[in-house]
Amino acid sequence: MDKKISQDLEKFANIPDFKKTITFFGSARLEKDDFYCQQAKILAKKCVENDFCVISGGGGGIMQAANEGAFSANANSIKSVGFNILLPHEQKLNDFIEYSITFESLVIRKMALIEKSLAFVIFPGGFGTLDELCEVLTLKQLEFKKNVPIFLFGSEFWQGFDEFVRNSLLKQGVISRGDELKYKITDDLDFIINTLKEL
After folding, report:
1. Do residues 114 and 139 lie in contact, with contact meaning Cβ atoms separated by under 8 Å?
2. Closest Cα to residue 136, out of 144, 125, 128, 126?
3. Distance (Å, rounded) from C-alpha 184 to C-alpha 153?
4. Which of 181, 48, 63 is CA-nearest to residue 113?
5. Model confidence pTM above 0.85
6. Are 40 and 28 in contact (CB under 8 A)?
7. Which residues pair with 73 in a beta bridge?
8. Do residues 70 and 94 lie in contact, with contact meaning Cβ atoms separated by under 8 Å?
9. Mind listing the pLDDT tens digit for each residue in 106-115?
10. pLDDT, tens digit, for every residue of 43-60?
11. CA distance 48 to 52
12. DSSP designation for 19
């Protein structure tokens, strides 16, 4: 086995059991005053105020906004976690994280971001975010994560994805009827929080 993979698997195996984790996915390229970053920050704070722990990929943009929101809330346990990735053009770990691991393997890092989370909030992002979204959708489709809520925040941004799922994937029969319902597109932070409270 590759030494880096082996080391990352060891890191993965030693991740603590955090309290009720919610993973935020989204672009590292959005500026902190972007609308979606501001919404991620607000939502993450609300999550911690409702006894959840927020996990992100540890970088900038949406990830930093989520960690900052979580970090700003009061909690008696770890509330802001970042699983960073070592890239050729280094991704700097943001300043709002209480517990972090830096992985060298994208695959193991993605496992860490997904494995123990009770729900996922996916904000606008690029190929990496789409990869993470499709991973959690596949796990839900295969019933490895049968009942996890998957929220796509930003109806304008995600409308095209939803149309592709319904008009191409479902129409062609490469997914099953009902798979198009495995995620919820929303612009309502309170809807997300109220759904999380029921977990």
Report:
1. yes
2. 144
3. 8
4. 63
5. yes
6. no
7. none
8. no
9. 999 999 999 9
10. 999 999 999 999 999 999
11. 5
12. S
